[in-house]
Design a protein that fits this description.
Distance between the termini of chain A: 29 Å
Oligomer: heterodimer
Number of strands of chain A: 4
Largest interface: A-B, 12 and 14 residues
Strand content of chain A: 15-25%
Strand content of chain B: under 5%
Number of helices of chain A: 6
Radius of gyration of chain A: 15 Å
Largest sheet of chain A: 4 strands, antiparallel
Structural class of chain A: alpha+beta
Order of helices and strands of chain A: HHEHEHHEHE
Number of strands of chain B: 0
Helix content of chain A: 40-55%
Chain lengths: ~150, ~100
């Protein structure tokens, strides 16, 4: 428990990143952390998208006023409305399942980034429609949360 | 945008995208974020000015941008300090406007 609590206590938001890219192995660790987050009734209504293309991140920055720094990677947490419907999750009535799952995945990613020595910052201040368009997401995938990742400046 | 092209068309359009996104967000966010987004937009516009304005004014733009970037984030940690900063900003800019008008 000790090391985990230390990670929790020591984690801080990072808004200033170097231009160094985040390694593929590190990104896979972050994705694993997201995938293994708790999920209500194990329904797994989230999907995850990693963005590392610098030009795409620069364009997304204009659609995401909350992106104050210049991260080199983004981990986008998506809610899959088709999967939710198939699992019987009523997203129109049940807000707790969706946001509990998104929050759990986000926290796992933030802590995993901290464990890897990376900087990370939550991002929810973005245009959902704008980001979906920029990422060319199908209609059933809703970008609910973005974790900005990079090396601390 | 025109003439000396201090701000390119692309940069201006990117700022339009930012402002439109912020306009949507401010429908949902706490009231103070409206002010924050405008101050952040000013910082974003100051970036090309800092790089391409006439040399005599670049230092002013650079310092203004640095000051905004340093103090805007107080909105999330020290509301009173943020309000003091925002309330004082127009007077700072007015002084610069007066100086330029007198030249």
């Amino acid at each position: 428990v000790g090391p985990l609590l230390e990670l929790m206590r020591g984690r801080r938001v990072c808004r200033s990143f170097t231009a160094d890219p985040v390694g593929r192995d590190e990104l896979n660790v972050l994705l694993d952390a997201a995938r293994f987050a708790p999920s209500a009734s194990n329904q797994r209504i989230n999907k995850f998208r990693v963005v590392t293309d610098g030009d795409r991140i620069r364009l997304l920055r204009h659609l995401a006023p909350g992106m104050l720094g210049h991260p080199t990677a983004l981990l986008v947490i998506l809610t899959d409305t088709e999967k939710a419907a198939a699992e019987g999750v009523r997203l129109d009535l049940d807000h707790r399942t969706r946001w509990a799952d998104v929050g759990s995945a986000a926290e796992n990613v933030l802590l995993a980034a901290e464990a890897l020595g990376l900087g990370a910052c939550p991002l929810m201040s973005f245009s959902v429609g704008g980001v979906a368009e920029m990422l060319e997401l199908p209609d059933h995938l809703i970008p609910d949360y973005i974790v900005q990742v990079g090396h601390r400046a | 945008v025109a003439g000396d092209a201090i701000v390119t068309e692309e940069e201006a359009f990117e700022l339009v995208v930012y402002l439109a996104s912020a306009a949507e967000l401010t429908l949902l966010e706490p009231e103070l974020y409206g002010s924050f987004r405008l101050v952040d937009a000013a910082s974003r516009l100051l970036a090309p000015l800092s790089e391409r304005a006439p040399a005599s004014r670049r230092a002013f733009y650079e310092e203004l941008k640095a000051e905004i970037d340093r103090r805007k984030v107080l909105m999330m940690s020290d509301k009173d300090a943020y309000l003091e900063f925002v309330r004082g900003l127009p007077a700072t800019l007015a002084a610069e406007l007066k100086t330029r008008a007198a030249q």
